[in-house]
Specification:
Blueprint: E1 2-12, E2 15-26, E3 31-34, H1 41-53, E4 62-68, H2 79-89, E5 102-103, E6 106-107, E7 113-114, H3 119-128, E8 133-137, H4 141-144, E9 151-155, H5 158-165, H6 195-207, E10 211-214, H7 221-231, H8 237-250, E11 264-267, H9 273-277, E12 278-279, E13 286-287, H10 289-292, E14 297-300, H11 308-311, H12 315-320, E15 322-327, E16 330-335, E17 339-344, H13 361-375, E18 381-384, H14 400-417, H15 431-436, H16 442-453, H17 459-475, H18 483-493
Parallel strand pairs: 3-4, 5-8, 8-9, 10-17, 10-18, 11-14, 14-17
Antiparallel strand pairs: 1-2, 2-4, 6-7, 12-13, 15-16
Helix pairs in contact: 1-2, 6-7, 6-14, 6-17, 14-17, 16-17, 16-18, 17-18
């Protein structure tokens, strides 16, 4: 009896678990069996063809493949580890060279190594479990170049991996790349006019608040939303790797380098539940638009056209910060900490100006009720672009870099204040911390109490006003919010009232 071992990683969501792959060669008729789910016939045929076409001999005995712990090995990322385990068991390669090394990659029938989804989270899991090195396909070097703390060895095919295991040739190692910060896709200084909307964007960025843009066709809603990532603070290296790990699992852009620019995802109103939350028909549920916007911005244009079956499931991720996708084999979790920007016309006719709309007030109210009924308590800032059109013939002087400096200073102040509670932005702070751990003079909270008594805001809305007041306080570098901060926060939250009156 001969036994070979190698290591691979089973990825669920953006987390991975290092798995030992075992290959046992025993006396008996030539056959290949698998005692672990996921190692199907197509996998066994693929690795056998790759081994023989690489000039190696497939064992003329009974081969049993298994994994420990016995989790399903879905996907093709485990092909290389299975092939190495078989060749180690047959004595074709020495066992000591691959001890502790993690092998990842899909094998073609001719032995070439191919990139597959989820390589980055798999490498991060191997690093977290203190494995010294990982062998990956050469095609994945761009994706993995920003990972440090583990030796990354790249190979074009199975022959090169076997040559490295036999001490016959080295493998390629990438140059360490620092995550880059590209130019923003839209600089806020290039947007003409909309001074009030730009101020609202700065406040939203400083506190991590959700934002609604209301206006007719061509009023600049999309352009303003696109400028938001450029004024957000750059991602930390850990956040950038987390965002890149989600993109790697999704497989949207395999050649994309790790970036510290917050992601921007624009989801169409016709998107399905799976496209928004994640899922699909593959064994491993893929991340949706909400998860791909993690640490960045999710833009929902024409949000009033979003179907109820899609709109309602979005509420829980907004509050909880994660999506849970239940499958037969368990629950897959994806993080969803993003800033939501929704945009809508104020009427179904989509008039470019308020005077150009000939619809009755009742029609307009019913149209916006689709938005207000779902998002009123989740959105802290409402911007009416109909009444925000001054200065459209001149460009603003403040660039995204200038605004980003003020936003970063406000974020740093908020992170310092909430550090003992484990929060980094005002929008994350729960109401219990806002109310119980900080006291406010009666003169400061009077506008909130008045709005609660008249029914203009709900209890959740009152907490949102208080969070927004803290952000306004941070932007003016003060220690505590005053009455003016609370009044301004209340006005920003109730901006949706103007087009309805």
């Amino acid at each position: 009896m001969r036994l070979g071992r190698s290591n691979t990683v089973a990825v669920a969501g953006v987390t991975g678990q290092v798995i030992e792959v075992h290959a046992d060669i025993a006396a008996g008729l030539p056959s290949v069996t698998a005692s672990t789910e996921g190692i199907g016939a197509e996998v066994r045929y693929r690795i056998r063809a790759a081994i023989t076409n690489s000039g190696e001999h497939w064992p003329d005995h009974r081969v049993t493949l298994a994994a420990w712990p016995a989790v399903p090995l879905s996907g093709a990322a485990h092909d290389l580890a299975l092939a190495v385990a078989v060749l180690t068991a047959s004595g074709a390669v020495p066992a000591e060279r691959g001890t502790g090394v993690v092998f990842l990659g899909e094998l073609a029938l001719d032995g070439r190594l191919r990139r597959c989804r989820g390589l980055l989270p798999a490498v991060l899991a191997a690093r977290q479990n203190n494995h010294p090195a990982v062998v990956v396909p050469e095609q994945a070097l761009t994706e993995l170049a920003a990972v440090d703390g583990i030796d990354i060895l790249a190979a074009p095919d199975l022959r090169a991996v076997l040559g490295w295991l036999r001490h016959q040739q080295p493998l390629t190692t990438p140059d360490r790349l620092v995550p880059e910060y590209p130019l923003p896709r839209t600089d806020i200084g290039d947007i003409a006019g909309h001074s009030h909307a730009k101020r609202a964007l700065e406040i939203a960025a400083a506190g991590g608040h959700h934002l609604a843009l209301l206006g007719g066709a061509g009023s600049g809603k999309t352009l303003l939303a696109q400028s938001l990532p450029g004024i957000l603070p750059p991602l930390t290296d850990a956040q950038a790797l987390e965002v890149a790990a989600i993109a790697s699992t999704a497989g949207t852009d395999p050649d994309q380098v790790v970036s510290t620019m917050p992601p921007y995802v624009a989801a169409h109103h016709s998107s399905s539940v799976s496209a928004m939350l994640g899922g699909g028909s593959s064994p491993q549920p893929l991340p949706g638009a909400l998860s791909r916007a993690h640490h960045g911005v999710l833009f929902l244009d024409d949000v009033t056209e979003l179907g109820t079956r899609v709109r309602e499931p979005l509420r829980a991720p907004l509050t909880e910060g994660e999506v849970r996708i239940a499958r037969r084999d368990g629950i897959t979790r994806y993080p969803t900490r993003f800033q939501l920007v929704v945009a809508s016309c104020v009427c179904q006719c989509g008039a470019a100006t308020e005077t150009g709309c000939g619809c009755s007030p009742m029609v307009r109210r019913r149209y916006l009720d689709r938005l207000a009924s779902a998002w009123t308590d989740h959105i802290d800032i409402w911007v009416d672009l109909f009444h925000n059109v001054t200065g459209l013939t001149t460009l603003a002087r403040e660039t995204s870099e200038t605004v980003r400096a003020r936003v970063s200073a406000a974020r740093a102040a908020a992170a310092w204040r909430w550090r003992e509670h484990g929060y980094n932005s005002n929008a994350e702070v729960p109401g219990t911390v806002l109310r119980h751990d900080f006291s406010y003079p009666t003169a400061v909270t009077t506008p909130i109490e008045s709005a609660l008594r008249t029914g203009r805001i709900s209890a959740r809305g009152a907490e949102g006003v208080l969070r927004l007041a803290w952000t306004l306080c941070d932007l003016r570098a003060a220690d505590r919010p005053n009455n003016q901060d609370v009044t301004d926060a209340l006005m920003l939250r109730q901006r949706t009232r103007s087009p309805l009156t």
